[in-house]
Structure formats: structure tokens, C-alpha cells
Amino acid sequence: MRTVTIKKAAAFLTALLSVGATVGCTSSGDSDSTVSQVETVVVEDTDEIEAIPEGAESTLLWMGTYDLNPGEGEDKSVEMTLFNNKGGTMEFSQVIDSEKFDKLASAIMSKNNVPDIFKYEWLAFPCQVVKDMYQPVDSIVDFDSDLWADTKDAADQFVLNDEHYVAPISFTVGTLFMYDYDIISSEGLDDPYELYLNGEWDWDAWLDMMDTFCSNATGEDIRYGINGWFQTQIIQQTGKTMITYDQETNTFASNLTDPDIERAENMLYDIGKKGYVNTEWTGNANNALKNGDCLFYCMGTWAMTGNNGPSEGDDWRVVPVPSDPNTDEKYMTSDMLAYMWVKGSEKSEAVKCWYECCRIAVTDEEYIENAKQKFLNANPNWTEDMYQVYIDASSSEYTQVFDYGYGISSTLSDDNANEDGNCITRKLYEFTNKTDDDGHQYTWSELRETYSATVDSELKSINEAVASYISE
Questions:
Q1: Which residues partner with 319 through β-bridges?
Q2: CA 377, CA 365: separation in Å to the nearest integer?
Q3: Measured between alpha carbons, how far is 308 from 20 in angstroms, rounded to an integer?
Q4: Would you give the distance in Å from CA 271 to the centre of its chain?
Q5: What is the rounded distance in angstroms from the CA atom of residue 264 to the CA atom of residue 268?
Q6: Phi-psi region of 365 (alpha: psi -120 to 50; beta: other; left: phi over 0)
Q7: How many other CB atoms are found less than 10 A from the CB of residue 472?
Q8: Predicted pLDDT at 18
Q9: What does the alpha-carbon distance between residue 251 and residue 253 come to, in Å, rounded to a whole number?
């Protein structure tokens, strides 16, 4: 029997996802040549979870944009191997991204080929829950057990009428800051990594470094302090979000007047006005940092691994998003993996088994170590220190932050629902730091005034829908 270690729930899956991103997002087709073979870990059976009972339905229907079963020449995942060992099999109902929610709703309404599981995405809670697309998981998940206890705080954020609708499998830090240490050193700046280790990597340190770097530009040179996607993560370091949720009353409310959000938004406005932000889409860390005119690049690891990241001879490093100096809490803007239990599915034993197989796959020490070696082999210019930052920032030592604004409605949540391609929640987080098509950069008071009525209207609608859902 394997010993299951829960402490760092994200480690194994995070690493595998990033290795996949390395192959999928590189700028050339020779990425495989940098990946040496890692000995495959034999997936031993475990008595930590029970097999699907004899006589119970054991085949799950998964609706998604990718197959959970291995393709030709691909290794079977740990979770799928365990699931098969426990008597389970997985069928695949393929959908394209732009049609997946419509296909799911159609299957549920027609009661024809209803999938059992569907990937968690922002609109799942509360929007799609109150549309009767998913069912609670409390009957198959014990959040007080050793296997699930590490996820309970996050799961408790997705409770409606005292029932949990999301069983988190793992968490991955949304973005990291990457930088060239040679630039840091030549400018006489403190190393952000050392500041991070000492608990001193916060907004104040970050702002001071950008001030110095940008002020040291000479002649006609233009320098930037930051490029990439960081605004949402910076604001959420306050621990605050645009929309709040009161579980006692099952109501959602606007938080746009929160003073901590205003403080963060004003800071983002200031660095935008100072010209510290390169607002161009550079695509990856290599493009953003290679010329030496930008101090930090912030994005998910997909944009800083493989050919997107450091090359041989580079001394590049990573740190988490700098923390709010006004709080000692450690917050993470989280990418969460979870599988929603679709309304109409009656295969509770098989869904329970799949969930448990997925959890063990991301918490077993041997699988975690194997994933680490795969990652470092695929990214030979990442150091073990860099990898550890990435794993630590994805761990349960951080409080996961989710903004319900992304789950209220298409207007607030779906970029495609707005003419300029930005959903309202995204605008609230990012537009004090950018200029619109007319060259205007919003102050927070302007931005709040522009969109508060829309937010209030959408919240009124969702609260009415929640009340109706509960009453039924």
C-alpha cells in the first residue's frame, strides 16, 4: 500500500500540466529533443480507496474538449490507471470549446447521453448550478477525511443552500513573475527571490525596483517595469474580490467600494501613468525579457517554459506575485482542477471512485517526485529553486482566491459577450492599468461608476435565480 501525503496537493498535476504546455505552446517543432526519458513509475494499486461495488454502473461518460483516456503512444495517467484498476472505464463525448456549454445543457434537457462529469469552469458556480446543470457532491465526498481535508477551505467557497457543488482535485498558481537575474544584478537591485525567501517580497519592494530600473534609462532608451497579465493577481493579494457571497443568506453582493480594492486599483493606475507597464502582447517570457528593457514578465508557466522560457546560459528566476504589505495572509489567484457532477447522473459509486483516484494521483509522494523530474528534464534551464517556488505557490499554504464575478453571468464573465472582447469583471480588474481604444486610462472611480449599474443589475438577476432554485 502507498502512503498518501496530502500537504502539497497541486504538485503532481501542476507539473504534468506544465510539461504539456511546454510541448503545446513552443514556437518551434523541436521541443521533444530537449526532453529526456524519465523512468515510468509503476502505478501500484492502493487500498486507500474502494473499488466500484459489484453490480454498480462503472462506466462514466465524460464530456469535454479532450479525452481523458490516453491516445496512441501516450502514457495512461496515474488517475486513469487507478480508476481502471478499481473497475472503472471512461467514455468520451467530444465537444468544441465554443459549443460545450450549449451541448451540455441540451443533453441535460433532452435526457439523452447525459454526461456524468464535466470540467469545472468559472461559470459553473453559481450561474450553471442554478440552471440545474450540476448536483451537490456531499453524498460522495467527505471533506473532513484525510484525502479531502486539504481542499475543504476552497470547497467551502462553492456552497449553495448548505451543499457543496465543487470537489477540488488540485490547485495551480495562476501566474508567476519571471526576471533576468543578470539585469537585477547590473542595476544594483535586491534579488526578488531572496526577498521572497525572507518574507519581504511585496508591493513596496516591487514598486521600488521598477522605479529604479525605469529611472535608470538613458538617452532615448525606453524601459518597462512589467509586461504580461498581473492586474487581477495583484488586486487579489488583498484577499478581496469584486463580488462577495453571503452563504447564510445565499446572496451575492458588489464589493466595488471596498477600500483595499481601491488602494490596489490606484496603485495600478499610478504605474500605468508612469509608463512602467508594457501593454503589448509579447506572447512569452523569451520575447518580453530577451532585450533587457523590461524588468518582470508575469504569466502562467505555459509562457515561461520550453522555448518560451530561458535558454542555456541564462540566469532567469521566478517568484510569486508580490504580496500586499498590509496583510500577512498568503493569497493565490488559483487555477483549480475539478470535475462537476452533472445533474441527472446516477453513477455515484463510479464518480466517487474517479474523484478519489484523481486526488491520490496528485498527493502520492512517488508520483510527485516523478513529475518533478519530468518537468526539469523538459525545462533544463529551470533550476530546482525555480521549480520549488512554483510548487510552493501552488500549495495549500496559500488561501485560494476565486471571484464570484466570473461565475455570475455571461455579461460579467464571458469575454465574447462584450463588443470589445473583455468581460465586465476583467475590465474592473485591468482597465485602471491600460488605455482603451481612444487612449483613455480609467481611474478607479471612473471605472467603478461606468460599470457599477451593470454589476448591480446582474447581481439582482442571479440572486433572484438563486432564491428560485432554493425554493424548488
A1: 177
A2: 19
A3: 13
A4: 25
A5: 6
A6: alpha
A7: 7
A8: 38
A9: 7
| Identity of the amino acid at 399 | T
Q: Please give the C-alpha separations between residue 267 and each of 233, 236, 264, 272, in angstroms, as whole numbers.
A: 13, 13, 5, 9
Q: Residue 149 carries which side chain, given as an amino acid letter?
A: A
pLDDT band at 184 (very low <50, low <70, confident <90, very high): very high
Which positions ≥6 away from 460 have C-beta within 8 Å? none
Contacts of 119 (CB under 8 A, 6+ apart): 64, 338, 339, 340
Q: Judge whether residue 8 has pLDDT over 70.
A: no
Distance from C-alpha of 162 to C-alpha of 248, rounded to nearest angstrom? 9
List Cβ neighbours of 328 (8 Å cut-off, separation of 6 or more): none
Kindly state the cell numbers that stand for 429: 480588474
pLDDT for 37 equals 57
pLDDT tens track for 216-262: 999 899 999 999 999 999 999 999 999 999 999 999 999 999 999 99
* Rounded to 5°, angle at Cα 64 from 63 and 67: 100
Alpha-carbon torsion angle 236, 239, 242, 246, nearest 10: 150
Burial of 28 by CB count in 10 Å (0-12 exposed, 13-18 middle, 19+ buried)? exposed
> How far is residue 290's CA from residue 302's CA, in Å, rounded to a whole number?
17
- Determine the average pLDDT of the residues in 102-106: 96
Interval 402-451: pLDDT, tens: 999 999 999 998 887 777 778 999 999 999 998 877 888 999 999 999 99
Give the integer Cα–Cα distance in Å for 320 and 285.
15
